[in-house]
Write a structure and sequence with these properties.
311 residues, 28% strand, alpha/beta, 11 helices, Alpha-Beta Plaits, Rossmann fold, six-stranded mixed β-sheet, 34% helix, 2 domains, 14 strands
């Protein structure tokens, strides 16, 4: 993928009180990808979305959406974007059909019942089209938010914390919906607190902290580059301490002396300093083990380390 649909250059956002919410943000979103923006509370995720969607004005910098400048060609840029906020506004007495159709009209699009029907069916809302919003479950209301955002046929969909506060089963349903949208050519940008959501869904991941983009990486490359692995060896006989030959930064002994824990990454393995080298050392020292198991660090481990490192 090398066709950018959103280009952000030198973006700064400072509020009146002097608080700098975004600092020198450069970011490119590729057409047709699912991009996850991760960051702790107050990191700048929602501010960044607001600026790209034209809901907040940048202090400096430029945003281009599908070739249109978000300030000088606001209308053209904005109509290409669907934004799914975290909560529904006060439309409790409206029906699903009317709410979604009204959203389309807000963008100056002529009525298109066929498109609204297609959107509602794709989100499993067709049977609820005549229901008032107040009668819907939390999960169905979340789907209505997505339907509203898709009513005007946008090419880009922003999902701000799409599954915050919903149960695990519904979260998985939502992931399926998002994948289906991407398969239909919609570019998806989601912010999330749920690391497993990014791990499950995203093609690429950006980490934002204190208003700065800390890193942008393809998910697989990120896991390979920053993800460590852990090998735990259960010993036949306990050790009171590690022999000098095994006094490595990457090797630790549990308190009872029955387990050796070795932490390594892909580079060490490639350079010949990995598991095979460790096992040879153990044999040399006459240390035998009865079992071993490995664990790979999750995206959560990587994220926590990155944020800690730059705090």
């Amino acid at each position: 993928m090398n066709d950018p649909i959103i280009t952000i250059n030198g973006l700064n956002k400072t509020y009146e009180g002097g608080f700098q919410a975004l600092s020198r943000v450069d970011l490119t979103i590729q057409r047709g990808e699912i991009f996850a923006l991760l960051g702790p509370n107050g990191a700048g995720k929602t501010t960044l979305i607001s600026v790209v969607c034209g809901l907040a004005t940048p202090t400096d910098g430029h945003v281009t959406v599908d070739g249109f400048d978000s300030v000088t060609h606001y209308r053209q840029a904005r109509e290409r974007i669907g934004l799914v906020p975290q909560e529904l506004t006060n439309e409790a007495f409206e029906t699903v059909w009317n709410t979604v159709s009204f959203s389309r009209g807000l963008f100056g699009k002529p009525p298109n019942p066929g498109h609204i029907e297609k959107v509602l069916k794709s989100l499993a809302l067709w049977d609820k089209r005549n229901n008032r919003l107040m009668t819907l479950s939390g999960g169905m209301k979340r789907r209505v938010l997505i339907a509203k955002a898709l009513s005007h046929e946008p090419r880009i969909l922003f999902l701000d914390e799409p599954t915050a506060g919903v149960d695990v089963e519904l979260r998985r349903d939502m992931w399926e919906v998002v994948r289906g949208l991407r398969d239909n050519g919609v570019t998806i940008i989601l912010t999330t607190h749920y690391i497993e959501e990014a791990e499950e869904m995203a093609d690429r991941i950006g980490v934002i902290n204190r208003g700065e983009i800390v890193l942008v990486e393809g998910k697989a490359a990120l896991m390979k580059k920053l993800g460590s692995k852990q090998l735990t060896l259960q010993l036949h006989e306990p050790l009171t301490e590690l022999p000098p030959a095994l006094a490595l930064d990457t090797l630790g002994l549990t308190a009872d002396g029955y387990e050796l824990v070795y932490t390594y990454d892909g580079h060490q393995e490639e350079e010949g300093h990995g598991i095979s080298a460790l096992l040879a050392l153990l044999e040399q020292e006459g240390i035998s083990f009865k079992d071993l198991h490995t664990r790979q660090s999750s995206l959560e481990d990587i994220f926590v380390d990155l944020v800690k490192e730059r705090s």
